[in-house]
Design goal:
Blueprint (H helix, E strand, L loop, with lengths): L7 H32 L9 H25 L3 H31 L9 H24 L4 H13 L3 H7 L9 H9 L1 H14 L4 H22 L3 H9 L22
Helix pairs in contact: 1-2, 1-5, 1-6, 1-8, 2-3, 3-4, 4-5, 4-9, 5-9, 6-7
């Protein structure tokens, strides 16, 4: 039987704990995913400047989100609002660099071998748009802190794919590697919803809207990838590049052993 809602200071502290634990968990998973790649030698710092800029900006967002959640948990509203202005300025950088990195990888013909190149071209921008839409909505709802925190939480879930995809054995899930990654990422909002409902006795509507946006992100990605728009989009993006010779819906060959 579900626990009925708590009220007053006790309920506020419980809600703040929910979001700080969630922020730490999502940040930890993302950092761990990229850290494992680096420690195992599957990635290195020998990457184009664009990739480094992308990494700095996206890891910077993790720091901003974690700091914002911690400030809210401590009741430091003034500092939370000041850092929020930085977050608003950070968002366009994430959109720009996120799309540029994906386009650059597709044009170089260097998409992950467990993704179809066209799928990879579509899914990252779709994830970024879901993240941006939920983040802007959360900012617009900043005076309604219950909506604000939950929409930001769901926005962060839209960014978890790359981190989770580096922790799970993605090649083992071909041809559904991205879909499995998304399914794993949904554990975070579903766990938060369960904890929230256990405490309050109801499901806040912001969770439902956030989940709907994440499901829409998946549907849009699949429709564009496998619909009539997908291949012309891929040909337009890769025109005149090495990626032009790569079949948009064929899985690239996995990386071979290093030369002797």
């Amino acid at each position: 039987m579900l626990k009925m809602s708590t009220s007053g200071a006790e309920g506020l502290q419980a809600e703040r704990r929910l979001f700080i634990v969630g922020a730490c968990a999502m940040t930890g998973v993302t950092v761990a995913g990229f850290g494992v790649q680096l420690l195992t030698g599957r990635s290195s710092f020998d990457a184009p400047l664009l990739v480094h800029a992308h990494a700095v900006v996206f890891m910077g967002w993790l720091a901003i989100y974690l700091a914002q959640t911690a400030l809210a948990a401590r009741g430091a509203g003034n500092w939370h609002r000041r850092l929020g202005w930085l977050a608003m300025a950070w968002l366009p950088l994430m959109l720009l660099l996120g799309v540029l990195v994906v386009v650059d990888m597709v044009r170089r013909g260097e998409t992950p071998f467990f993704f179809r190149p066209l799928h990879f071209l579509v899914l990252d921008p779709a994830s970024l748009l879901a993240f941006a839409g939920l983040t802007v909505w959360a900012i617009a709802q900043r005076r309604s802190t219950d909506w604000h925190a939950r929409l930001h939480f769901c926005a962060m879930v839209a960014l978890l794919g790359p981190g989770i995809g580096r922790l799970i054995p993605s090649p083992a899930f071909m041809p559904w590697a991205w879909e499995v990654t998304i399914a794993v990422s949904l554990v975070f909002p579903l766990a938060a919803i369960f904890a929230d409902r256990l405490r309050t006795g109801r499901v806040h509507p912001a969770w439902l809207y956030g989940l709907a946006a994440l499901v829409l992100m998946v549907l849009v990605t699949e429709v564009i990838t496998y619909g009539p728009v997908g291949e012309p989009l891929y040909r337009m993006v890769t025109a005149g590049s090495a990626g032009e010779s790569v079949a948009p819906l064929a899985f690239p060959a996995p990386p071979g052993p290093p030369p002797a």
